[in-house]
Amino acid sequence: MKDQLAMKHTFRFAAAGSLQRPGPIGRLVRLAMGVFLAWIVWQLAFRYGVSGLTQPAAWFWIVFALGLAPYVVNIGFGVTWGAWPRIAGGLLLAAGAAVGYFQDGTVIGQPLWAATLVFMTYIYVHLGISFLLSALLATPGCEMRAIPHLIGIVRGKSSDEHYCPGFIDNVDRWERERKLPAEQRGNPNVRKNDLLRDGKRMLLLYGIPFAAIQVTGFVGGPGVAAIVWTAGFAVMGLAGIANAIQSHRVHGFFTGPWFLLTAVAVALRYLGVIDISGPVLLNTGLFVGVLLYFVSEGIWGKYFGEDQSVASA
Questions:
Q1: Model pLDDT for residues 116-133, shown as the tens digit of each residue
Q2: DSSP 156
Q3: Could you give the C-alpha distances from 240 to 2, 105, 196, 253, 254, in angstroms and in order?
Q4: Residue 131 vs residues 45, 55, 121, 145, 162: alpha-carbon distances, Å
Q5: Residue 249 in 3-state DSSP?
Q6: Cα three-residue angle 217-218-220, rounded to 5 degrees
Q7: Residue-range domain boundaries for the chain
Q8: Cα–Cα distance for residue pair 153/101, rounded to 1 Å
Q9: Is it the case that residue 304 has pLDDT exceeding 70?
Q10: Is 284 in contact with 217 (CB distance < 8 Å)?
């Protein structure tokens, strides 16, 4: 099997058979992600309209879609266009805003909503279908290679693979390691005391709190939201700080304090001490946290005080 480290560079593809296929747990996670994205698309199509652009939750998913665009397009189509898909999406949204301004004197209008709907529907439909297909076909690595994988099966040809740049890789690695003897577990190029080297811990410390915060943001009452949001952000904050201390994981130095600050702000908001919209707090907390994660480790690598050519595993 080829060295997987070489495949972890963004938009670098590998020959078929270079990556291992996901197991039942990995496929179940992919299925859940596909269903979740189908729900997001349903919300876009039937719940939101122009008025949705005044909601902080909508802008969280717009910005998130812009962040995903290069991965969806480049990995999904097997091209290396870099950040151009993100730039194109931004230009589409800017054009919608400009048309609305010149037509009706307002940026937030029907043209911007139409541009937003087209862009977000494409990103989340392509990603959602890819998750569902990857669960069905057990596509190795990134879910965005599922459609090329299916086309290859139909044509009787193999398709290139791509390492998963998201959390899916942690889940797959944890599932594979469960079947190995204890002495063979763990990637030697990843610090053994990194809490996130274990997919189960990552799910417990970040996945479940993130999902709980999102769900209660839509269906929970004020009391439930206050408890779940405060607890969820606190758990992610403490996990980040603990990981930073014991493994020098870079993002923990930034996301840990930020999530703890957000937890305090949420608690103060529901105690009536500060007057900030709950959705604004939620979406700002999550978006900035994700941004800090990728920006910090994009600049300094995975661990402070370690050769990044080794730590990039």
A1: 999 999 999 999 999 999
A2: T
A3: 32, 45, 10, 7, 8
A4: 20, 27, 15, 9, 14
A5: strand
A6: 70
A7: 4-155, 193-305
A8: 48
A9: yes
A10: no
